[in-house]
């Protein structure tokens, strides 16, 4: 699979979200960070803004729910227009049931892991998912430095995906930029959330193209991708 670049609107101008979405229409997905000021110490946006964004852009929405009680709220984001909904393993009461409900409503189901949460306890859940998100910073704020210590975890996650022969995307989020994307791709990631690296660029659309090209070139020679 070709690398996918998902610009994060957390780094966009919130007063001009429709325009900011249009500025990256060559992206694969638009990454929408939903924070509730409880699960993470920040407050961003919710269902009404997702509904408005879904009307304002043709780019599918990738909603990352950094919230408490995702079992209750996640289905509403599918109904609001999200094409992919990510809940946190640390917050979900019944992750298998939640993933199945998200899928039944027509969206891709994804599970995120904070940096300190290992992937191994969730091995048996992987077939219920369409994507796993490995956080490469502590969730809650944009613009943080990439945590290199997450690279072995990305590799272990890719190994589990390969072990079970799953068609499962592996996303990374946090500090992804021109200086870090190749390391992520070599380790096994194929979906990349980029905030500051895209919206901080003079030409966000060109930044998306450049990041994708970097990731594709690295993936072409990565050991994990051979035979895929």
Structural summary, described in words:
This protein is α/β, with parallel strands linked by helices. The chain is about 35% helix and about 20% strand. The protein has 8 helices and 8 strands; from the N terminus they run βαβαβαβαββαβαβαα. An 8-stranded parallel β-sheet has the order 1-8-7-6-5-4-3-2. Strand 3, helix 3 and strand 4 form a beta-alpha-beta unit. The chain is globular, with a radius of gyration of 16 Å. The protein starts with a strand and ends in a 7-residue tail after the last helix. The model has no long low-confidence stretch (mean pLDDT about 95).
Main β-sheet: number of strands, strand sense, barrel status?
Answer: 8 strands, parallel
How helical, in percent, are the residues? Answer: 25-40%
> How large is the radius of gyration?
16 Å
Number of helices: 8
Low-confidence stretches: none
General form: globular
Mean of pLDDT? 96
* Order of the strands making up the biggest sheet: 1-8-7-6-5-4-3-2
Q: In angstroms, what separates the terminal alpha carbons?
A: 8 Å
Compressed to H and E, one letter per element, the order equals EHEHEHEHEEHEHEHH
Protein name: Ribulose-phosphate 3-epimerase
Keywords: Carbohydrate metabolism, Isomerase, Metal-binding
Binding site for a divalent metal cation: 31, 33, 64, 173
Family: Belongs to the ribulose-phosphate 3-epimerase family.
């Amino acid at each position: 699979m070709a690398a996918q670049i998902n610009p994060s609107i957390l780094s966009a101008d919130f007063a001009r979200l429709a325009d900011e979405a249009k500025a990256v229409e060559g992206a694969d997905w638009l990454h929408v960070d939903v924070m509730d000021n409880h699960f993470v110490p920040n407050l961003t946006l919710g269902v009404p803004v997702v509904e408005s964004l879904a009307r304002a852009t043709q780019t599918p929405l990738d909603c990352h729910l950094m919230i408490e009680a995702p079992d209750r709220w996640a289905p509403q984001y599918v109904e609001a227009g999200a094409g992919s909904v990510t809940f946190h393993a640390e917050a979900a009461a019944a992750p298998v049931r939640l993933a199945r409900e998200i899928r039944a409503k027509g969206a891709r189901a994804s599970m995120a892991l904070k940096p300190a949460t290992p992937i191994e306890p969730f091995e048996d859940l992987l077939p219920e998912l369409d994507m796993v998100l490995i956080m490469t910073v502590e969730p809650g704020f944009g613009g943080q430095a990439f945590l290199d210590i997450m690279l072995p975890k990305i590799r272990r996650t890719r190994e589990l995906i390969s072990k079970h022969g799953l068609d499962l995307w592996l996303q990374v989020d946090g500090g992804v930029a021109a200086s870090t994307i190749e390391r992520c791709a070599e380790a096994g990631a194929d979906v990349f959330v980029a905030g500051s690296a895209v919206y901080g660029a003079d030409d966000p659309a060109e930044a998306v193209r450049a990041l994708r090209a970097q990731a594709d070139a690295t993936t072409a020679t990565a050991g994990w991708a051979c035979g895929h």
